[in-house]
Amino acid sequence: MELKLSGGRSVSTDLPAFVMGIVNATPDSFWKESRGGLGRALSLVEDGADIIDVGGESTRPGSGYISDDEEIRRVVPVVEALRRVSSVPISIDTRKLSVMKAAFEAGADILNDVSALEDEPLLADFAAEKNIPVILMHKRGIPSTMQDDTSYGNAFAEVDSYLSARCAFAESRGIAPENIIVDPGIGFGKDDRANFSLISRCGELCGGRYRVLMALSRKSCIGRVTGRDEGGRLAGTLTADAVAVMSGASMVRVHDVAEAVDSLKVLAALGFGGR
Fold first, then answer.
1. The pLDDT value given to residue 82
2. CATH number where 192 lies
3. Which of 4, 53, 232, 262 has its CA 20 to 30 A from that of 96?
């Protein structure tokens, strides 16, 4: 698999899915081990990460938004420091145009937008102009309130309809289909029934026209099934990610890169490929 980046660069993998390692430049992300900067990022690269995802604004349930300036202050130094010593592709977990512009100038490659270009539609124009791959995620509401209503008539159909509409918007603004990745937003305004339906059917989203990112590492739905806290959810995460990849996901966003790579190597040996 290959994902083309701005400036004629690309990232490829022989495994069934790309591995995106999480670096949270935040004080409040739910998994403390993900918090950090250059050291955390380089450790994930050494473990085999294809992409490093840097976020400066927590989106865990109950969290609040921060200012553009504060998010830039958290994110840009990490991007600059990493780019000085590594060519690894860098994704920015943001929904703000000013943050993405600053991060892109510092060396970032990919936009990971939890608002699916709704909060700042002009992000679509910037991504199209710079040929930046975009990740479009489904959520309901905002992090501070998104778990207040998690009921759906048909969760898969509703998420599928929303993501199809956001992909159509992205294409209408000039973003190429091969630069669009969809994320069903596991845990973002969803109950466990919805979460697990989306994991097991993720390859069907948008009719299979776009790559799918699965981001479920150590999340609460894994904890409720296993009865374990964040520290004990690795095995459950690997199992769910494997099912997602077997169902069509081509990218996994994880806290535990080395273990994810091992899991994907086994899937490859068993004959499961990516797209």
1. 96
2. 3.20.20.20
3. 4
Count the domains in the chain: 1
Q: Look at residue 36 in the predicted model and tell me its pLDDT.
A: 67
Flag whether 10 is in a domain.
no
Whole-structure pTM over 0.85, yes or no? yes
- The predicted model gives 131-146 an average pLDDT of 85
Q: Is 60 a catalytic residue?
A: no
Chain centre to alpha carbon of residue 136:
9
Task: Count Cβ atoms within 10 A of the Cβ of residue 122 and give its class: 0-12 exposed, 13-18 middle, 19 or more buried.
Answer: exposed
Q: Is 211 a catalytic residue?
A: no
- Name the catalytic one among 96, 140, 218, 219: 219
**pLDDT at residue 168 greater than cutoff 80:** yes
Three-class SS state of 22 = strand
Residue among 40, 140, 190, 253 flagged as catalytic:
253
Whole-angstrom Cα distance, residue 185 to residue 140? 9
Which residue range is the domain that position 193 belongs to? 15-269
